[in-house]
Design goal:
Layout: E1 3-6, E2 10-16, E3 31-37, H1 39-50, E4 55-57, E5 59-60, H2 65-74, E6 82-83, E7 89-95, E8 101-106, H3 115-122, E9 130-134, H4 140-149, E10 153-157, E11 175-179, H5 180-187, H6 192-202, E12 207-211, E13 217-221, E14 224-228, H7 241-254, H8 259-274, H9 286-295
Helix pairs in contact: 1-2, 1-7, 3-4, 5-6, 7-8, 8-9
The protein binds alpha-D-ribofuranose (RIB).
Length: 300
């Protein structure tokens, strides 16, 4: 079974701020860094660092060389990534003193997918292969439909939420990994319990992984439920914590680990990511997760 992640690659411009800037305010930042990121790239890197081979497909613009280098360095197979004219996707990220972030996204090359490009890449994959997707690229509905028609296993992180998701058939998704805000936006519910119930009702064949911020995460499939608390760390930068969780949980599923083991592994990996600066750079190696995981305080 091969794994393909068809997703975004961004250059993240990260500004350290005392507080998130308010409308009309001018605010001096106390530091600025440039990192490789994008939900797609971060999740590919998390899979690769967890030890699972992954192909990444996506588009970068003229300044995309560092994104290609990040793939090479972390062991992501980037043979399907194309460089096109125009700008790469990028973000402006504010990180406050509590490590919380605010992200302004410019799609750039990530939104220049064509059906021909999608068809060409998918042509190299077959029934039983897995495809991982997020919502930072265009043609998401087309990619889901095409991969499902080929009998690939579709895994979706519907993030960030926007109206493009309304044309996606979540019934074709084998596993949905989302946070409670996205869960609320998709179901119209507020409470995690209601979100889970509604998702089960709407998509009875879909495995759900709902992350709940400080309250951990829940896995649900039909009548089966598992809960995972977070591991406590000092938050430096929460960027890519969710992507780390997604990549590591998926790696556990691919390796055949049990759901509780996979949730614990993903929670440890994302806690380590939160304790470090940046997006792709903050994602730990499997070895680091195993070493640090032993010393981590037991879940809160
Ligand atoms: O999930 C974190 C990512 O979201 C960042 O790396 C940024 O690029 C945005 O896409």
């Amino acid at each position: 079974m091969k794994i393909l992640n068809f997703g975004s690659l961004n250059i993240d411009y990260v500004y350290a701020v005392e507080h998130m800037i308010a409308p009309g305010e001018t605010l001096a930042s106390s530091g600025m860094s440039i990192f490789c990121g994008g939900k797609g790239l971060n999740q590919s890197i998390a899979l690769a660092k967890a030890g699972v081979p992954v192909y990444h497909a996506g588009l970068v613009g003229e300044e995309g060389a560092p994104l290609l280098e990040a793939c090479r360095e972390s062991g992501v197979n980037g043979k399907y990534i194309r460089t096109i004219s125009g700008r790469s996707g990028h973000t402006i990220i504010q990180v406050d003193r509590d490590g919380q972030n605010c992200i302004l996204l410019y799609g750039g090359a990530n939104r220049k997918f064509t059906k021909e490009y999608v068809d060409e890449v998918l042509g190299d994959f077959e029934a039983g292969d897995m495809i991982l997707l997020q919502n930072e690229v265009n043609l998401l509905d087309y990619i889901i439909d095409s991969a499902y028609a080929k009998k690939m296993t579709v895994v979706l992180n519907p993030s960030p939420y926007d109206s493009a998701l309304e044309s996606c058939d979540f019934g074709k998704v084998a596993m949905l990994l989302l946070n409670e805000i996205e869960g609320g936006q998709i179901t119209g519910e507020e409470e995690p319990e209601n979100i889970l119930e509604k998702l089960r009702e709407l998509y009875p064949e879909t495995k759900i992984v709902l992350t709940l911020g400080k309250n951990g995460a829940v896995y649900q499939y039909k009548d089966e439920r598992y809960y995972q608390d977070i591991y406590k760390v000092k938050a430096v930068d929460t960027t890519a914590a969710g992507d780390t969780f997604t990549g590591y949980f998926l790696s556990s599923a691919v390796e055949g680990m049990s759901v509780p083991e996979g949730l614990a592994l993903a929670a440890k990996a994302s806690a380590l990511a939160v304790s470090r600066k940046g997006a792709a750079d903050s994602i730990p190696l499997r070895r680091e997760v195993m070493e640090n995981g032993r010393q981590m305080q037991s879940p809160m």
